[in-house]
Structures are given as structure tokens and as C-alpha cells.
Amino acid sequence: MSIESLLLSLAMAVAAGLVGCFAVMRRMALAADALSHVALPGIGIALALHINPVFGAAAMLFFGALLVWALEGKSHVGAEAIIGVLFSVALAIGSMTTSGEELIEALFGGMGVLRWPELVFGILASTAVVLFMVIQRNKLVVMLVSPEVARTAGIDVRRLNLLFLETFALTIALGMRYMGVLLMGALIIIPAVTAKRLARNLTAMLQSAVAISVFATLGGTLLAAWLHRETGPLIVIVAAACFLASFLRR
Predict the structure, then answer these.
(1) Hey, is 98 helix, strand or coil?
(2) Of 9, 25, 10, whose CA–CA distance to 211 is shortest?
(3) Which end of the chain is more exposed for a tag (fewer CB within 10 A), N or C?
(4) Residue 94, in any domain of the structure
């Protein structure tokens, strides 16, 4: 793995740790896995047009998050239910637009050759995610505690909810190369759930989630190089090992 690829994977891990904390607190633990499947049709379209699949996945994830936000406001149905519907439809369309090795790589990720457009996109996207989570942290907390209180405080709850969903989607897109459609949700959720068990306050939870996510990414990458296996599954295994180890602490 090149230095650029390693730095990009670590930036992805930091973004996943921060976003995962708020996803867990919003009870969207399963939404990360379901929403990630929305990228499949975008990957298929990008491959057909000979475009980098990462950009096709990102575009479809952005559209999916926007659709979830719009339907949630009009149907009064929870975001997780709408994401479940989109997941089923996207999986069906994606299975028809991708096949063979392309489908396997889309589902589980693959290192490949890192091109400069991917590097620029990854750096800019991870920076945007981290800045959003740091700047909007207090508003997100107030919205989690009580949307009514947030509105009273002058926070545009609906707009903030859209921005969080798009940030959530962007974080998933960051991990498409290394984790794939099926595994990126695990890197968002497992470190955050582990941090929630260990931390006593929100700041500690955010710091712990980032540390666990970075550790799992580094550990999984080193194991993959040693065992000559794909990186994504081993990153998830290391993250799961950290979760199980958290039960050793009372």
C-alpha cells in the first residue's frame, strides 16, 4: 500500500468514527449498512460510462440521502424505514447493472491503483466531513435531545438533518474503495458502539470512536498485507475484536 492510500484510508477512518457516533445516538445503526447499498446502481452506471466507480457511487449516495430526507418529511415515516425501501430497490437495480468481478469489488472493496482524482476527492471529502461534525456538533446534540428545543434556539432542524444525511452518505462514499458496499457500514457503526460502551461523555465517545476506527484500519491493513488478503474484511474483524474486548471492562 502506498503512503497516499494509507493516508486516505486513515482520513476515511477519522470521518467514519465521528459520523458513526451521531448515527448510533440517532438509532441509525443499521441505516449505514442499508444506505451503502444505494451506491450499487451508481457504480453500475459509472462502469457503463467508463467513469471512476467511486464518483458514480458518491453521486447515487447523495441522491439517495436527498430522497430519504424528502420522503421522511412528507410521509412521516422514520428514516430507517425509508432507507430500508431504498436498500431493496437499489440492491435489485445494482445486481442487474454490475456483474462478475466488478460486482465482487463493489461489494467488498479492493485496493487497485489509486488515481489522483480519487486522492483529491478523498482528501476534500474527509476534510469536509470532519469540519462539519466539529462545527455542527453542538447543534446536532441539541437536535438529538429535542427537535422542539432546537427550533426554539433558532436551529433549522430540517436543513441540519439534510446536511447530516448528506455527510453520512459522503462518509460511506469515502470507504467504497477499501471497504466496499457491504462492509463500510461496519466501520461506521462498530467503533461508535464500542466507544459508547467505554466513554463517559460525548467528547470521550468521539475521541474513542476515532481512535478505534483508526486502529482497526491500521491493524486490518497490516494483517491484509501479511496474510495477502483483502483489506476490508480484516478491518471489520479488528473492529469487532475491539468491540468484544470492551466487554472485559466493567
Answers:
(1) coil
(2) 10
(3) C
(4) yes
Residue 250: count other Cβ atoms within 10 Å of its Cβ.
3
With contact defined as beta carbons under 8 Å apart, do 171 and 16 qualify? Answer: yes
**Has residue 250 been placed in a domain?**
no
The number of beta carbons lying within 10 Å of the beta carbon of residue 11 is 20
Cα(23)–Cα(205) distance, integer angstroms: 13
Which domain does 68 fall in, by range? 3-245
* CB 31 within 8 Å of CB 23: yes
103 in Cβ contact with 95 (< 8 Å) = yes
Give the lowest-confidence range in 93-97, 193-197, 228-232.
93-97
Alpha-carbon distance 131 to 109, whole Å?
26
Q: Which three cell numbers stand for residue 104?
A: 465482487
Residue 156 lies in a domain: yes
Contact between 175 and 231 (Cβ < 8 Å) = no
Q: Give the closest residue to 12 by CA, choosing from 105, 84, 98, 109.
A: 109
Give the CA radius of gyration of the chain. Answer: 17
CATH of the domain at 190: 1.10.3470.10
216 Cβ contact list (under 8 Å, min separation 6): 13, 187, 190, 191, 235, 236, 238, 239, 242
Band (pLDDT 50/70/90 cuts) for residue 217 is very high
Question: CA separation (Å) from 122 to 4, 21, 23, 143, 148?
Answer: 10, 21, 21, 28, 36
In a domain, 30, yes or no: yes
Euclidean distance between CA atoms 26 and 145, whole angstroms: 10
Whether the predicted pLDDT of 214 surpasses 90 = yes
Helix (H) / strand (E) element for 246: namely none
Q: Are 12 and 131 in contact (CB under 8 A)?
A: no
The total number of structural domains that make up the chain: 1
Q: Look up cell 470521550; give the residue.
A: 204
